[in-house]
Amino acid sequence: MHQRVPVQRTLVTGGVRSGKSRHAETLLKTSAADRPVTYLAPGPVPDGTDTEWADRIRRHQQRRPAGWVTVECGAEASTALRAVTGPVLLDCLGTWITAVLDGIGAWDRPQPEWEPEVHRRIDDLVRAWSAVRGPAVAVTNEVGWGVVPEHRSGRQFRDLLGTVNQRVAAASDEVHLVVAGRVLVL
Predict the structure, then answer these.
(1) pLDDT at 120 exceeding the cut of 70
(2) Which domain holds residue 164?
(3) Would the annotation count 31 as a binding residue?
(4) Is 176 a catalytic residue?
(5) DSSP 116-142
(6) Contact indicator for 89, 61 with CB cutoff of 8 Å
(7) The domain spanning residue 90 has which CATH number?
(8) Which of 5-9, 77-81, 148-152 reaches the highest mean pLDDT?
(9) Region (Disordered): which ranges (predicted)?
(10) Digit-coded pLDDT (tens) for 123-156
C-alpha cells in the first residue's frame, strides 16, 4: 500500500471496501507514530439491533493502535475537529452527512425545508477542516459511479455527499483515491 505522510490535510476517497480506511490509518501511523491520534467517528453508535454494523465498527477498532483516542462525534464533526490539538482521522464523511440528515429529520421532510441547514453545516465542516493543522486525514465514499439510486433519499444522499467531497477536497492539501487497495494521489 502507498505510504505518504500527509502534508496537513488529506482527503481519502474511494468505493466501498476499497481500502480507504486502512490507507488513512497507515498515513497517520507513519506521520504521527510518536503522538496519539484522535479518531473522530461520526457514524451511528451500535444499539445492538444491527449486528453487521457493530461488527464493522469492531473490526475498525481492532486495527487501531492502542494509543489512539476514539471520539464518537455524530453530526458534530465540526465541533470535534475544532477541539482536536494533535493528529486526527475523521472516518467518514458519508456517515457524517447521514448523521446530519438524520438529526434534522430530512428523510421525512421536503428538501426545501431542510436544505439550507445542511448547507450551513457543510460550510461549518469545511471551515473546521480548513483550520486543522495536520496531520489530518478524512475518509469519504466516492459517489456517483454506479446506478442512479431508485429512491429520492438515495439520490439526495448521493448529491449531498458529492458536494461535501468537492468542498472538503478543495480545502485539503492532497486527495488520495483508493481503488482495489491501490492508491492514486490526485
Answers:
(1) yes
(2) 9-185
(3) no
(4) no
(5) HHHHHHHHHHHHHHHH--SSEEEEEE-
(6) no
(7) 3.40.50.300
(8) 77-81
(9) 1-23
(10) 999 999 999 987 999 999 998 777 788 888 888 9
154, part of any domain? yes
16 is annotated as contributing to ligand binding: yes
Would you place residue 6 in the very low, low, confident or very high pLDDT band (cuts 50, 70, 90)? very low
* Amino acid at residue number 186: L
Residue 101 domain flag: yes
Contact 23, 73 (CB under 8 A): no
Q: Which of 60, 119, 151, 176 is catalytic?
A: 60
Angle at 98 between CA 96 and CA 103, to 5 degrees: 95
Q: Does 3 map to a domain?
A: no
Q: How confident is the model at residue 33 (pLDDT cuts 50, 70, 90)?
A: low
pTM reported for the whole predicted model = 0.88
| Positive/negative CA dihedral, 96, 27, 62, 33 | negative
**Residue 4, domain member (yes or no):** no
Q: Is 56 assigned a ligand-binding role in the annotation? A: no
Residue 65, annotated ligand binder? no
The percent of residues in the chain predicted with pLDDT above 90, rounded, is 62
C-alpha to C-alpha distance for 50 and 119, rounded to whole angstroms: 30
Query: Are the beta carbons of 13 and 140 closer than 8 angstroms?
Result: yes
